[in-house]
Structure formats: C-alpha cells, structure tokens
Specification:
The chain contains five helices and 16 strands. The protein is α+β, with helices and mostly antiparallel strands and about 300 residues long. Helix 1 crosses helix 2 (about 55-75). The protein is globular. GO terms for molecular function: endonuclease activity.
Length: about 300
C-alpha cells in the first residue's frame, strides 16, 4: 500500500473515531452527568456498588461501551479482533473488511481528574514489540502492520476518592421489587440499605470526557508506571483532548526513536555517564539542540 492510500485511510479513520467519541458521553451518563452503572445485581435483586479502583472502573467501562464499539466498527466497514491474551497489545484491532492490510490499534484508556489535571495513563510498552516491529510477541499483529495507533480516552471524576472494596455498599430498590417481596436486612454479615429508586444510589464516577487521540501525540517522555517499560501520557486535560503531548510538534519519528532508546542510550553529563531518560537530553545527544524549542514543555507537570 502506498503512502497516499495509508494517509487517506488514517485520516478517515481518525475522523470517524473522533465523531464516535463525542457520542459516548450521552450513552454512559444520566442527565445530570452521573454514570448510568450503579453496581452489580444478583438474583435476589441486591445491588452491590463498585469500588472506584481504576482497574475495576476501566474494565466495567470497557464492557459498558463494547456494544457501541462493535456497532461503530460495522458502520465504518471494519471488523474488530480482540487481544487474545489479557496483557497483549492492543485492546482492539480494527481491520478493514475489504482490505485486511488496513489495520488500526485502539486501546481504551481511562483516567480521573485530580487537582485540575488527570492522573495520566500508560500507552503501551516501549520494549518488546515496540522495538522489534516485525515480531508478534505480546501483540495481536506485528507493530509495523498497523497504519496507526490510537487511544479512545475516558476522563472522569471520582465521586468517592477511596479504592477500598470494604467501603462498597449493598442496596435493595423498591421500584425493582415485586408487590409482596420481603426486604433483606443483611447479606451475610453486611447490612442492606433500602432505597426507593435506582437513581438514589450514588454513581461511583461522573462527568465524562471522551476523546480519541493518536498515541504518539499525547505521549510524555516519562515512563507511565513504576519500573515497567511503559510509555506515559501527559496529564493536562486539554493537552490530552487536543493531542498536544511532548512530541506533538516534533513528529512520530522522534517519538519512536526516543522511546526505542529510552534508558539504553547514554551520554556524558557533568563528566559522568548518564542513561538518557529525557527528550531534551536525547535531542542534545543527537546533536539537535535546535529542536529544543519544539518540546511541548508545559506537559512535564507531574501528578
């Protein structure tokens, strides 16, 4: 496939993904912005609220919007292939139904607001498949077979800032009961609270912002999680939504080269040998100090 055709597929896909993202808030929210998911229900009509733990929220959101994602893919003439294993990249592979050379990687990424920014998220590994782009280890298809790599991002506000599962509650709702159904007082040792309406239960998250972004355009030059080889995102909400990451004025080639060499390339600094873990140092190492001004520096803010 020639570059012109690739760019046309890429432009069309991003336009459709942007449009799709704008419709998701209405799908997952009540009129006042609360998440429509209140918890899990059992056969006895007990409703168990959920923790605001980010991993739990992310998985439930993924399940919640997955029917919409399937419908979206079909509407733009793509099929979806799910990652075969939990830790594989990406979450979703979009493959054009008439040309299977056209593939796009899409990860669902969630983050919550904190102090006017977000806590950020990881954008996939910068080792393994990212470096060996013709290999298929821990990735659905080799990295270089994808025309583009995207995030379907979700920013939300947490109603409860704790992650403790012990803080979750159990409810029964009058509107869901049969006329002569008896209210349970306890489930095991846990108290059951009775409420009149389902809407009375506080949603664990609210105020959603959905956005679509190309991965490299929202990346920072810092790792996203501890000692693992993951690329971190920027934290500023508008930067995420507007694809205004650290590399956004430099281009994808610099993003690729920096992260392939992150923590491996070394340079002399103040007479000592240092591993290169900042974009400014990397550009200096490459002899391109003229590009320092293109680093979007305001995105260096920490959590």
């Amino acid at each position: 496939m020639n570059l012109k055709d690739k760019n046309k597929y890429k432009s069309d896909f991003k336009t459709e993904l942007d449009h799709f993202a704008t419709k998701l808030e209405e799908y997952v929210s009540t009129n006042n912005g609360d998440w429509t998911i209140k918890g899990f229900i059992d056969v006895y009509k007990n409703i168990y609220t959920i923790s605001s733990d980010t991993k739990i929220i992310s998985k439930i959101l993924e399940i919640h919007i997955f029917p919409q994602i399937l419908a979206f893919a079909e509407s733009i003439n793509y099929k979806i292939i799910l990652a075969e294993k939990q830790n594989w990249y990406p979450d979703l592979t979009f493959v054009h139904q008439e040309n299977d050379e056209v593939k796009f990687a899409v990860d669902l990424k969630t983050t919550f607001r904190r102090n006017g920014k977000t806590t950020g998220f990881t954008l996939g590994s910068h080792g393994g498949y990212f470096k060996e782009r013709d290999k298929d280890k821990n990735i659905q298809f080799p990295y270089n077979q994808y025309i583009g790599h995207y995030c379907l991002g979700v920013i939300y506000t947490r109603t409860d800032i704790t992650d403790e599962l012990s803080d979750t509650e159990i409810f029964q709702v009058e509107d869901l009961k049969d006329e002569f159904e008896v209210t349970n007082q306890k489930v095991g040792n846990r108290k059951v609270t009775n409420v009149n309406k389902l809407s009375s239960i506080t949603s664990v998250i609210k105020d959603f912002d959905f956005f679509a972004a190309e991965k490299w355009k929202i990346a920072s030059d810092k790792q996203g999680s501890g000692n693992t080889a993951n690329i971190g995102s920027v934290f500023d909400i508008e930067d995420l939504k507007n694809e205004n990451g650290v590399f956004s004025q430099l281009g994808e080639n610099w993003f690729d080269e920096y992260w392939i060499n992150h923590g491996i390339a070394t340079m002399l600094k103040d007479g000592k040998l240092h591993k290169i873990t900042s974009l400014k140092d990397f550009l200096t190492f490459k002899g391109r100090t003229d590009l320092h001004e293109k680093i979007v520096s305001k995105t260096f803010n920490k959590k």
